[in-house]
């Protein structure tokens, strides 16, 4: 421990290290509930690539685990500290190095906040689409670590699709450059993509080249009320089957609507079973919105209300973005699931989730990236009640089992972390796990990078 | 050799093996010029996953190299046989197993021809965008192996972006399933993407889950003539900087235009230095086409002609698709390069290529996926003339060196194969090469999968 600090100090400015246990303890957890975490030995906040290299060389020499962190908004415990680890917080490496409108790329350090990048590129008529709910706080490095999604994915895809190239400090401190600044490139294996979603287990991202898009027109939102989640899912399937490309397609169940109203006085309809939001950001969204309204009505919608303007559209999106927070306020504790199924199985997934809530006698609110089939069931429970806590954990697992049964995945966008590592093996199967482990060893033979996560 | 055939026959129907040396020799090469190839010991044409597993188990037991092949339309020698290898041709595994318009996916075997899939999904109102020039012949398995591009990429991206999940037979015959049927998923490392572009060195793709899109409206093409390639590149940069999203943006130089006219009597303008084709496939392409016409004029275009209708647009695209074939007919031999640079560097790349042609006293025709910065300089030469052949090879290398100098990559979409393996190390650097090699070893410890390719 003394040797660790002495060695770290030799290559870092004094203000880059935090050793006060009260402060380091505050870096132990990300935003996931009920995930184990150890006490960090030290928190390091580097400002340069060389400082990160120094940290990794030191950690390799002393065989000390390193846990990289962004804003700790993650929902799977992937950034939780291990006992005695170095927490490597990249939040001070927060410079936007370049924005190039001709090449449509941005070059950034990992600590840049998602919203800061989005605003900076917007000033140049560009957009960086990935928009996780935590976009006002979360960092690009964290987004890359967990391959974050957001509301935009149904049209614009996930973070992975916007990462063109990376500078990565490897476990032993060497600097690796992957990928490209170009629109295309197939020189060798796609290491860039391998790092995206690797949850800090393969290396430390210290610079990223990101693809940008032209800023689309402001989206217009339509809200449709349905008497059942199944009817809303029928509308979702019809919308996608008819070839529409909404810029978002989101579903909130009654529990979620009530929770949002309680938290934000949003005036959402509380008697409807499922509210579907569909938006288009094309130059002329009217034909699509009209067609979608008809499809909703045909699927049984009782009310179909297009937003009057961009401001009203934004208000509906705010309500949707507030959903997880609102559901968290329903009870003393929550567990947020992230199961993604083929969208043709979405109705079965939601029906099954309702059945699971009944079986375990729990409130489970559901908000859904419906266009992606990505459900976020939020299990609400009283963590002072041991029996209810047990039922909560069991229902959480039952939801993942159902997702796998329906051809889905245990995590659409939140990652595995520690929360779902027991489940990852079930999804990947033995051959997959063995290969993934051998990949991890190829990058980190000593096992010092974010140990205990993923597998 | 006898033991190899005996063991292979034990698990394969008689008609799945070809041993006649005259016939097996015809499987030795893909479509790349001047790439080494050995004589295959046997060509195997399996119809089932189990047969592929049998081949790989046999090859592992006997330490025999296996070279997977699709339609052998590749342009880098990546499918060339090694001496004494098993050529594993996947062309008979050509079933489309599923097309699902709600989930917007297709499930296919690797031998499905790109055009066959495109036509099958079009019947259901869907599109599979990746469209390499060889799309009427090349297979999806081959497209996945080389991460193929095409004309569509400037708007729709490359093959990699459409591969959601894979079944892969590993070197030792085990079956690995990667990825998902869902729109999103972040469970573990992205092995799917690692296989895309791996040129048959990590495993044998036997099934793929592909993402589809709604079929867009027929695109309308605008043709603009420029007095110089640099002026055309200025227009390209302006078009992208202003936030347009063309469905294609292609450039042909005068050598290419003349070659296409000679081959196909297409009536292209032969006195212009650079012809730029821009297309839009939006519901109302008129505003974009008008704006692009203005930008072309401002950049110095001497003629700007929008196609009258879809038929005329299709004719222009045919001319573009014919370019490589037409340039190949210019001389007794050609080498086709595939350098991709940031599009802001495209003018410098084309200027530099002209200078290289002058320096080496050669004809080099250039057609360009201009929106991607992906140039295909075609070095034309007489391969009976040793000095001209030497100069051709040197100019080919000079073009790659220039591409790297301009921040580009040695291959935008054709792959490394044997043609560019000496260059791959220059692009990746020593740390990158070492990691890539260790990945390869993790998948193929005996080194039997397509040896001698990539590295």
UniProtKB/TrEMBL annotation, chains A, B:
GO MF terms, alphabetically ordered: FAD binding; oxidoreductase activity
Occurrences of domain FAD-binding PCMH-type (ranges): 36-215
Pfam families in the cross-refs: FAD-oxidase_C, FAD_binding_4
Highest taxon of source: Bacteria
Gene3D superfamilies: 3.30.465.10, 3.30.70.2740, Vanillyl-alcohol Oxidase, Chain A, domain 4
Family named by the database record: Belongs to the FAD-binding oxidoreductase/transferase type 4 family.
Listed PANTHER family: GLYCOLATE OXIDASE SUBUNIT GLCD
Record's protein name: FAD-binding oxidoreductase
Origin species: Streptomyces solincola
